[in-house]
Amino acid sequence: xxPLVRKDxxxxxxxxxxLQQSRIEELTSEHDGYEDVEPAHSSTAHDFNGHxxxxxxxxxxxxxxxPPLPPWLQAAxxxxxxxxxxxxxxQAQAKVTKECLPHLTGQDTSGFELxxxxxxxxxRTQHAAFLHAQFEPLPAPYVAIDASRPWFFYxxxxxxxxxxxxxxxxxxxxxxxxxxxxxPTGGFGGGHGQLSHCACSYATILALTxxxxxxxxxxxxxxxxxxxxxxxxxxxxxxxxxxxxxxxAYCAMTMxxxxxxxxxxxxxxxxxxxxxxxxxDKLGEWISHCQTYEGGIAGAPTNExxxxxxxxxxxxxxxxxxAARQTQPEGGFQGRQEKLVDACYSHxxxxxxxxxxxxxxxxxxxxxxxxNRAALVRYLxxxxxxxxxxxxxxxxxxxxxxxxxxxxxSLAGLSHAQNVFTYNARAPTTGEGRxxxxxxxxxxxxxxxEMRELGVDEEDLVNFVHPVFVIPxxxxxxxxxxxEDGTL
Length: 488
Ligand SMILES: [Zn+2]
Known about the structure:
Layout: H1 15-28, H2 60-63, H3 75-78, H4 88-104, H5 124-133, H6 149-162, H7 171-178, H8 198-210, H9 219-229, H10 246-258, H11 283-288, E1 297-298, E2 305-306, H12 315-323, H13 345-348, H14 352-359, H15 373-383, H16 404-418, E3 420-423, E4 430-431, E5 434-435, E6 441-444, H17 448-454, H18 473-482
Antiparallel strand pairs: 1-2, 3-6, 4-5
Helix pairs in contact: 1-5, 5-6, 6-8, 6-16, 8-10, 15-16
The structure holds zinc ion.
Organism: Neohortaea acidophila
GO molecular function, one term: protein farnesyltransferase activity
Protein name: Terpenoid cyclases/protein prenyltransferase alpha-alpha toroid
């Protein structure tokens, strides 16, 4: 299957072409930093101060000693953490630590070109090629996720944007593909003839926002459809007759905000029978019921806590829960207690730091005391990039394969760690019956000093990824302006 319908058969977009591009990249990096023997340089370079190898004095980075390991990877620290009890969980954890440590400590650099801090560079060319290739025909087993087609549009377009790639060539194919997925009663299905679903509609609307194509969305119908998902207890269902959970609340509020839809419930909404008049009525209370004794937030009341977002919450308990999700010694995040590190939680948990720092009304850099940004960057660059000169994409952990989902959320994790996001608490959160709260974010890149602490060079930086919408900041601002007058 091919997730996108193309209007043209542009040969520039074929996989063959992408592989050729990778080959060009491969040739330029032939003498990359991990080779022991350097080629001799010009004849004038050998007669200074008795240097034993001509030209080496011109390349200080290659002759310097390896940078020391950070404190959390030194032998004395590693020795502090051990489990006396052996269970399936501790065995699985020991296996993951064993597979990650050689990468984290630089013992195994997978042939990657290293930056000035001894960490692998972000392989942006390869990751971009991997993401572009997701829009080509995919292997047969992908038919099983045909109903998740819009997610590919979103993961790929958002990932490419984080890498600074031009996504404009995909705009028209995206519009042509998603138009038939929109139901006249509002919302998008995952494939042709499928019922509207919150997850697919969320992914489609984010992809359209990135591509500056929100005019495709029937906003009035979307508002009506979201009204049918709002429940008398304050939560949202994922689809008509489907489960009610916190994803529904997040997806619905994201769509209402980006499309600047009225917070007033449509007249025929079932939630009105319980006296509710707005989409936000009883929503905070409903979310507060999802917070568990552990401090985290579950998918629904009474379930187990899983990576998610705050308000109407026990914030200290949530903070403690979030902080405990960063794994030692890997430095990435796990999704739940006693689970393994996984790169996608670089966003699902890593993205919460900007939100909770704002909720605590702390200066954004204070979050440095709450989580270890450098450890997350090290995990993502050393363990989660697919090795191989022609290969790209990012993965859950070294023993897994890359995919578009983990590529986007790894890049988002890099953005959360590298950049600093601030929330303007003085800006209005509602206006003319619309939700404005999520538009109040600003971002700045790292200073030279912060880059040194993180272990990244200029070419390892990713673009700002919005902490709430997980799309480019500029696309969010464009959507805000597009529907500013609020007419439906
Ligand atoms: Zn994952």
